[in-house]
Structure formats: C-alpha cells, structure tokens
Amino acid sequence: MSRGGYYKWLRSPKRNKDEKDSALIKIIFEKGRQKLGWRSIQMRLINDYKVKMNHKKIVRIMRENSLLTKIRRKNPYGMIMKTDQEHRTAANILNRDFNQITPGKVFCTDITYLYYGMSQKAYLSAVKDIASHEIVGWKLSNNLSLKFVLDSVSQLKTKDNKAIIHSDQGVHYTHPTYIAKLKELDIRQSMSRRGNCIDNAPMESFFGHPKDDVDYREAKTFEELNAIIDRYLKYYNNERYQWDLKKMTPAQYRNHLLQPS
Q1: Is the confidence at residue 159, as pLDDT, over 70?
Q2: What is the pTM of this model?
Q3: How far is CA 64 from the centre of its chain?
C-alpha cells in the first residue's frame, strides 16, 4: 500500500466504524469469558446494545482480532448405575421428540457433578422444560442421596395430567420412592435406553453451559457454590439469549409460546 493510500484508509469512515464495532464485539466477547460464538455475540448486540450487525461482519472482526472461542470439551463421564430387583425402569416414551411447543408438559432431568474448594465435589440435579428450555427445578447436594433429586422434581408445575418427565436409568430414577413421587405429581415417566446419552440430549446440552460460563471452582464452601449456581440459573432463564429460541431467553420464549395464536 502506498503512503497516500494508507493515510486515506486511516481517514475513512468505514475504518472508524469498524473500530467502534470491533471494540464493542471485544467487550461482549470478554464479558462472555471468551466462550461466545458469532451467534451469541449477534444476539447480545441486538438485545443488549440495540445494534444490528451482519453475521459475516462479526465473523470477520473476530477473525481479524483473533477472538477465538474456547470450545467445550465433551464430558467423558457417565452416570449409568446398575439397579437391583426392586428398582423399575420405564419405557422411552419421549423417544427423542425434543420439538415441543407447550411449556409445562414435557420435562427432562439428570444429575451432574461440580468440583469446588479443595477438590470437593457437589452434585446438581436439574429439571428442564423441553419446550421453553427453562430450568424449572434444581437442587444442589454434597452427596448422592435420593432426597435432592426428589426436591428438584417437587418444584414442577405441570400443564395437565399428561405431563412427561424423561431421565436416564440411573439408580435415583428407578428408585421406588422416586416412582411414587411422580405418581403423586401425576407425571408419566420416560427413560433413555441404557447407555444412550443422546436420548436425554437436552440435559447433556444444558449441563455444559454452567461448566463453561461460571467460575464455580472459586467457591470455597458449599454455601458459596449454592449461591453461585442459584445466580447462574436465574441468569440462564431470564437473561441468556438462545439462538434456537428465536433469539429470546427461555423465560421470554415461554411467554411467547403461551400467547394465544
């Protein structure tokens, strides 16, 4: 490039606009702990800054500024447990029918672990509404007792007596007390095929987000961890925009689905 061409480029309005757009994208990227892709950045530009920007421009700016998204690693651990004779499995009623449009009717649930403090381990039981993607029930525990799973399910508010909750075949979900609790709540039980995590893909997908988005390992006590997860789940339901939900948050999308057609 010639000297004159360089100074002309410096004075160009396009360059100045690009600098402002780049600065804004960098701010959003850093706030997202360097884990946001172009879709997430575009949703935040629209919803939080009222800025419309073409995805190709976002990709270009990210590439030019070396804003490389940290990719979540697949969790290599499963929670498949053997059950004894008093435990009962259920049929796979859901059968991967994840395209639900009625909130409060189809749920899925699972358990994951979270390390905190001095390599201490906590367990998170969560229930997700498949239609809205909201986390509608959750409980943190420092042990794998049945109670925290029952507590998370007890928070459910169903639309009708045809509601379904889907899980894997873990020992908690085949326990007679858990089965009795679902009958009390008038919820039908559905289970994944043994060793097939794809059958419960919505929960597999969700559990990756708090592990990516939250510095939960910085918690020194169980109480601190509980507060961190509580804040995150409120953020997830009410502030975290999702591309597949028409760029809405789960709470916004639930209200959208409930609007009369």
Answers
A1: no
A2: 0.71
A3: 29
